[in-house]
Amino acid sequence: MTHKLLFPRYNENQVQLSIINTTASEDAGNYTCLVINDVGNSSDTTSIVIQVVPDPPFNVTVDSKSSRVVNISWMAGFDGNSVILDYTVKISEDNQNLTDVVCQGSLTSASLVNLFPSTTYNIRVFARNLIGKSTGSSVVNAITDEEVPSAAPTFNVTVVNSTAVIVSWQMLTKEQARGAILGYYLSYKTELDNDVWVNRTVDGGNITSYLVTSLKKFTSYKFVMQAFNSKGASPQSAAVVKKTDQDIDALQANLTGLVKNQDYRIRVLASTIKGDGNYSDPPLIDQTNQDKPGAAPENLKGRNLTSTSILVTWGEVPADKQHGHIRHYTVIYKKVSGGPDKTKIVTIKRAELEGLDKFSEYNIRVLAATIKGDGPPSDPIVVSTDEDKPSAAPSLTVVKTLNSTSIQVEWEPVPPQNRLGHITKYVIIIYTDGIEERKMDVPAPASKAIVNGLKQSTTYTVKILAATVKGNGPPSDPKTATTKGEENTKTV
């Protein structure tokens, strides 16, 4: 676009002219000063570049991660016509404790170190030039890997009778667990040097007690414990020594109609014709066997992370329906449009489904399992992956000359399977002699447009592409048209 300002008189003492009071990015371009007097004219042209804050980085990607380090990279946005001085990576741990990491220069990758295992981090990247700082990139989530627990649980041993004890312990803190605790190893032996250790595995990170039976009467035992997660077992605890009681004569009774996987405190009293005696003390603590869960986990939710991944979260199985120690969860998912069921097994109440089709709806369910098997699946939820750029171009059908300065362009839309989102606009690209001359945006869902302001008797090459909120797709194959003054229109 050309603008012209006329100054009819010129003072020789005037050495500059102000033609732009405030600047915007669209003011960039070539400026020509033309001086005319009675003898002739002279001109000079200069180029003006407008500097603005940069666009935010895009396509932020987690390249690799471990328990303590997350490596990310990104693509640089428009630099605002000013050299990028640095990038700032903002990290929040489980949506708290915001931390800044500054990357000097134009480096488009960073290693985020000194992180904590099994923790969700939210990551955004900002660019900065001499003018200022950009807005933030889209948020990327990264979950660090687990590590072996750093400590064994603190525990104590309570004598129940002459052949049984209760071992109870405290759950590890997040800092000690370094991941989802899957269970505990309990080992015990008599204090005799030549005796062998008896090993028991307690499945379930939420379990805090275990009944040890079939011990020798009136004997001292040594007990040690470890906690374990998917990466291995913690260091072994210090030993606790406890002696079983002396034996007494006992009777027995069968208790029926009890709740599955339930702890019971049992006391006994004796009666004569004169009345009841005192209850036994301390009470016997025992537990019924486990069964499959009787219900699915509650509060199943999902949201897309990217165009190919979905994050799914859920709550506990109702306590009275767990029927045991929940060992793992199975996420069952498939495309709404059809296809086989796929599954992912996890030990925590969240799962990231990856490798999904772009901009596609998925039916998702979850079930819980104990040592006895799988419980029923939840009611399904439907979650869609995020949009992406179109993977194919519209079909350019007609490029028709209307007059000496206009052509008409017509097209067919991108095939549904290649749209990968909601088409927001079409971009018509005009070339002359292989050089891009101009672009014209046409809002969707239009299927034709007229391009005006062209040169007479000129052959133009035309391409078209479609765009979603995520960006432009590939351009179409070209077609050509030639403007010819007042001659008849030409269709190609």
UniProtKB/TrEMBL annotation:
Instruction: Pinpoint the Fibronectin type-III domain residues.
Output: 56-147, 149-247, 296-388, 393-486
Native species of this protein?
A: Desmophyllum pertusum
**Taxonomic superkingdom:** Eukaryota
Renumbered residue ranges of the record's region Disordered: 469-492
Residues in the signal sequence: none
- Spell out the SUPFAM superfamilies in the cross-references: Fibronectin type III (SSF49265), Immunoglobulin (SSF48726)
One Gene Ontology term of the biological-process aspect is: cell-cell adhesion
Pfam short name (any one): fn3
Q: Does the keyword Repeat apply?
A: yes
Q: Which UniProt keywords apply?
A: Disulfide bond, Repeat
Q: Can you name this protein?
A: Fibronectin type-III domain-containing protein
CDD domains, per this entry? Answer: FN3
Q: Could you tell me which InterPro entries the record lists for this protein? A: FN3_dom, FN3_sf, Ig-like_dom_sf, Ig-like_fold
Give the Gene3D superfamilies listed for this entry. Immunoglobulins
Organism ancestry: Eukaryota, Metazoa, Cnidaria, Anthozoa, Hexacorallia
